[in-house]
Specification:
- By secondary structure, this protein is α+β, with helices and mostly antiparallel strands.
- The chain is built from five helices and 14 strands.
- It folds into two domains: 37-105, SH3 Domains (SH3 type barrels); 111-221, OB fold (Dihydrolipoamide Acetyltransferase, E2P), CATH 2.40.50.
- The longest helix has 12 residues, at 146-157.
C-alpha cells in the first residue's frame, strides 16, 4: 500500500542536470577524414550517446545527445561507421556512432522491448533513460529541473533500479524494487501531472499534492 513516508522525495537539489559536457580540445591522433556522404539534414537521435571530437570512441567527449532530439547530421565518415553532427550551439562539430542515429544510415530503429529494467537517468519526471533509450511513464506529463533531480535522488536512495512494463505503445508502468509505482511518487510530490485518461489512483495522488502545495503546485499557488 502506498504510504506518504514511502514516497516523499528529498528536497530539490539546487543544481540541474547538464545536457552537455564541457568542450575539450582534440588530443587524439585519429583524423576526422573527409565526409563520405554529405547529408546536412536533421535526424532524430535514437539512443543517448556521447559526442566525440573525432570519429573514435577514444576521442575526447565534447557533448551529450539525448534520445528523440533532432540533431543536424552533416555527413558520414569512417566508412559510414560515424556521423558528423553539429551541436545545438550551431558552431561545434562532433562525431557520434552512426547506429545512434539509424535514420541517417537508412536503418529502422529497433522496437523497445515490452519490459525494461535497470538504473535509470531521469530526463524529466515522466521520461527515464534506461540502456540509453527513452522510457516514457504512462499517463504522466513531466517536468525537468530541480523536481527531476529530486526524483533521481529518490530512485537512488530506494535501490537505484526500476522495472518497467509496457502499458500502451511506447509508454510504461515503472516500479521500484518494493513495487511502488514511480508515477505515484512523482504525482504525490507535485513533480508531474496526470495525463488525459490517467487512472483514479493517479488523480487522487495529484489532488493530495495540490492540496499540500507541493512541487509545481507550490509555484501555482505562489502570489504574484
Amino acid at each position: 500500500m502506498l504510504t506518504l513516508s514511502r514516497v516523499l522525495l528529498a528536497c530539490a537539489v539546487l543544481a540541474t542536470l547538464s545536457t552537455a559536457r564541457a568542450q575539450m580540445p582534440p588530443d587524439s591522433d585519429t583524423a576526422p577524414g573527409e565526409l563520405q556522404q554529405g547529408l546536412n539534414k536533421p535526424y532524430p537521435v535514437f539512443t543517448m550517446t556521447d559526442v566525440h571530437a573525432v570519429p573514435s570512441s577514444d576521442g575526447p567527449v565534447i557533448g551529450l545527445l539525448w534520445p528523440q532530439v533532432d540533431v543536424l547530421v552533416t555527413g558520414l565518415v569512417a566508412e559510414g561507421e560515424w556521423a558528423q553532427v553539429q551541436l545545438p550551439d550551431g558552431k561545434t562539430v562532433g562525431y557520434v556512432p552512426a547506429d545512434a542515429i539509424p535514420a541517417a544510415v537508412d536503418q529502422t530503429p529497433p522496437d523497445l522491448p515490452k519490459t525494461v529494467a535497470g538504473h535509470p537517468i531521469v530526463r524529466d519526471t515522466a521520461t527515464l533513460v534506461i540502456d540509453r533509450r527513452n522510457v516514457h511513464l504512462s499517463k504522466l506529463e513531466g517536468t525537468d529541473g530541480p523536481l527531476a533531480d529530486s526524483l533521481q535522488s529518490y530512485i537512488s536512495s530506494a535501490g537505484g533500479t526500476v522495472s518497467c512494463e509496457e502499458r500502451e505503445l511506447g509508454y510504461y508502468l515503472c516500479t521500484m524494487p518494493d513495487g511502488t509505482d514511480l508515477a505515484l511518487v512523482a504525482l504525490v510530490n507535485g513533480a508531474a501531472l496526470a495525463a488525459d485518461g490517467a487512472p483514479d489512483a493517479y488523480l487522487r495522488q495529484q489532488a493530495v499534492a495540490q492540496q499540500a502545495h507541493r512541487g509545481i503546485w507550490a509555484l501555482a499557488s505562489a502570489p504574484n
